[in-house]
Design goal:
Oligomer: single chain
Organism: Weissella koreensis
Radius of gyration: 35 Å
Largest sheet: 5 strands, mixed
Distance between the termini: 55 Å
Pfam family, one: DUF4811
Shape: rod-shaped
Protein name: DUF4811 domain-containing protein
InterPro entries: DUF4811 (IPR032083)
Length: 240
Amino acid sequence: MLILLFIGAVLLVLAGITYFRRKIIRWSLLIIGIILLVASGIGVYMAPSHHLFMKKQVINKTIKMDAKTVVNDKSFIVTTSAKNSKFEYHYKWNNKSYRITPKTGTTNVVKGSTAAIKENISNYQAKNFFDKFMLVGLPTSTEPDVKYTFVLPDNWYIISSEQDQQIQDKVKDSKSGLEDKIKEDVTSAVKEEVKKNSDYLNDKTAQKKTQDEIVKSVTSDIDKNLDNDVNNMLKDWHLK
């Protein structure tokens, strides 16, 4: 359009020169020049906002993911602060760590049966020769607009790295003294079994069964308490 704008200006200049030299009005040059000048001027003004001579391009991609951290039945995507964006989102896939940095666009969260990230990239581009010719001197494409949608099943949450650290500290505290508790309970249970059965100490299978039951009972109690603690933290963070 800048080329047509230039041609329109040239035609008006030629019409002006012809008039001043020969006192002849070249109506054809005058009218065509004005039309080109006005139309091209309006086009140049509207091109950036209306994407004139550009076509919209859209790319959709689905990214599978696993949680960055897991606590019992709860899975977490962890965010950290980023220099050129609001957040970086950290997750895993096939035991490898990945991150998404939404520098532009928006981020949404929806519920779904399978955890995934849906990436939508769109922009406007001049695709053919005519469109590119009309936009000579002007941008022929726009910056990509990127939108991320996190599809999260139930019991999946997006938390900050600080919140994740608080949860990990709670997990660490819950395991404190676990081995001593198991040993204490196993010893007590063995004594009770010996009172019931004098041959118990010679029965390795029975001893193994007792130990497994104690481990299962103790870890189950710890997991329940941990679940309650994490649920309370999520409620405090308004995530539950």
